[in-house]
Amino acid sequence: MTHELVTSLRPLLTAEASAEAYAAGAEPGDLEQAVWLRLLERLDAEDPPRDPRGWLRRAVRSEARRTRRTSRLERPYGVEPVDGVGRDPEQLALDAARGRAVREAVRRLPGRCPRLMAALLSPEDLTYREIAGELGISQGSLGPERSRCLGCLRRLLTPEVAAH
Q1: I need a labelling partner for 71 at 20 to 30 A (CA). Which of 27, 28, 151, 162 fits?
Q2: CA–CA separation, 143 vs 90, rounded Å?
Q3: Residue 63's CB: how many other CB atoms inside 10 A?
């Protein structure tokens, strides 16, 4: 049943994601990936939607809105972060402790998140294509996977940041 549903919805999802992606500031593949995930989670928790095509259209629009909201909250740095020259020893020690806390939290992440985060934070500045090849996953799934991993990392670090 699931295979037939996925096969029948694939062309519609591709078209809907392509139509919504530009306005959402997202890649069509990222929207597709998110909607497939939502569908699989729904199928795991309950029955298939009564109107799969209608459900899919609503899910694509919902994901596009979520992506737009998220992108509005993200702001680029006004200037590049400083490199540490001229900072006092106390600030350097605090920065080192923060770095250790982040690395420790990354190691506690579930699944392939530690490897993905290590690749993203690599000083080699790997491209998405190189990271996907290293992890053995599709390049289109890196965005959603990265978002999930960052969400997990944020949840792990929130209690630690609040404690300080």
Answers
A1: 162
A2: 36
A3: 25
pLDDT at 162 over 60: no
- More confident call, 163 vs 99: 99
DSSP 63-124: HHHHHHHHHHH----SSPPP-STT--HHHHHHHHHHHHHHHHHHHT--TTHHHHHHHHT-TT
How far is the C-alpha of 13 from the C-alpha of 7, rounded, in Å? 10
- The residue type of 14 is T
The pLDDT tens digits for 116-125 are 998 888 888 8
Report the b/e string of 109-124 with b at 16+ CB within 10 A: beeebbbbbebbeeee
Nearest CA to 120 out of 156, 145, 100 is that of 145
Could you give phi then psi for residue 142, rounded to 5 degrees?
-65, -40
113: which 2 tokens? 């998140």
Token digits for 76? Answer: 């680029």
Q: Burial code of 19-35, b = ≥16 C-beta within 10 A, e = fewer?
A: ebbeebebbbbbbbbbb
Q: Which residue has the tokens 């250790």?
A: 100
